[in-house]
Automatic annotation (TrEMBL):
Catalytic residues (UniProt): H33
Matching PANTHER family: CYTIDYLATE KINASE/PANTOATE-BETA-ALANINE LIGASE (PTHR21299), PANTOATE--BETA-ALANINE LIGASE (PTHR21299:SF1)
Note: The reaction proceeds by a bi uni uni bi ping pong mechanism.
Positions annotated to bind (R)-pantoate: Q57, Q150
Pfam families in alphabetical order: Pantoate_ligase
Keyword Protein biosynthesis belongs to the record: no
UniProt binding sites for ATP: 26-33, 144-147, 181-184
UniProt keyword list: ATP-binding, Cytoplasm, Ligase, Nucleotide-binding, Pantothenate biosynthesis
Annotated protein name in UniProt: Pantothenate synthetase
Gene encoding the protein: panC
Reactions catalysed: (R)-pantoate + beta-alanine + ATP = (R)-pantothenate + AMP + diphosphate + H(+)
GO CC terms: cytosol
Keyword hit for DNA repair: no
Length: 276
């Protein structure tokens, strides 16, 4: 695996690649990331991953400084997964001057749910992804469905800017108990790790209610919030939304359940596409 730390080195190395397939990450890689790399491999002629903890997508009180940085094991995992090129710029290499020119995704998507609770988050994400796209110039890029709203914001950005990049969604990778893998799971205590699957179970309960014919979405959402609160969580939202744009669904439209909740000091997110 070739490791490039600068944009110039990366571009020189990828000069002959006709169809780079790209998986952007912030490192601290787990099986979920590695599954995305494996998914990307047959889609291009060079598999490229990036590791960059993007300051722009963290609020001042969030965990930018403490976000786990696990360079050696990340490299080992990427090599084992058959990644060809790792782009790992430092802040000076990717943001040599303050990044004042930013991508502002459509507020209708970017200011709700995650964007409501983490203002500016999708500006930070779309800006860095746009910049990484300019560096790697992929023809295909794979993003996990675990970050459902992020995947939608990236798809929308790519469509609106007519970027010649196919965006592929990778299924959420879950532990045996159903917990969605996340770098932030590492913050959980042993007791919290056992409890964490309850977020996914709350989404499952919402799906069950819908499938059994219940149509009062607000009541289903309120029950899910209450069930987590009763277990000591602090939920930000548990909602049933239209898959197409994450707005309120009309009867018969495909639905996704999305949830974000804090367990102790760790904020977890998850989602579930529901076929009724
Ligand atoms: O999902 C992530 O890890 C990050 O948001 C991404 C897409 C790598 C941008 O920093």
């Amino acid at each position: 695996m070739y490791i490039a730390h600068t944009i110039a080195d990366l571009r020189a190395h990828l000069a002959t690649a006709r169809r780079p397939a790209f998986v952007p990450t912030m490192g601290n890689l787990h099986e979920g990331h590695i599954a995305l790399v494996r998914q990307a491999r047959p889609l291009g002629d060079a598999t490229v991953a990036s590791i960059f903890v993007n300051r722009l997508q963290f609020l001042p009180h969030e965990d930018f400084d403490t976000y786990p940085r696990t360079w050696d094991s990340d490299c080992e995992k990427l090599r084992a997964a058959g990644c060809d090129v790792l782009f790992a710029p430092d802040e000076q290499a990717l943001y040599p001057e303050p990044q004042t020119c930013k991508v502002h995704p459509d507020p209708a998507l970017a200011d709700i749910l995650e964007g409501h609770f983490r203002p500016g988050f999708f500006i930070g994400v779309c800006t860095v992804v746009m910049k990484l796209f300019q560096c790697v110039q992929p023809r295909v890029a794979v993003f996990g469905k675990k970050d459902y709203q992020q995947l939608m914001a990236i798809r929308h950005m790519v469509r609106q800017f007519a970027l010649p990049i196919e965006i592929v969604g990778g299924e959420t990778f879950r532990a045996d108990d159903g917990l969605a893998l996340s770098s932030r799971n590492g913050y959980l205590s042993e007791a919290e790790s056992a409890e964490a699957v309850q977020l996914s179970m709350a989404l499952q309960a919402m799906a069950t209610a819908l499938r059994s014919g219940e149509r009062d979405l607000a009541a289903i959402e309120a029950r899910a919030m209450q069930s987590l609160r009763a277990r000591g969580w602090q939920p930000d939202y548990l909602v049933l939304r239209r898959r197409a744009d994450l707005l309120t669904p009309s009867p018969g439209e495909p639905i996704v359940a999305l949830g974000a909740a804090r367990l102790g000091s760790t904020r977890l997110i998850d989602n579930l596409e529901i076929d009724t």
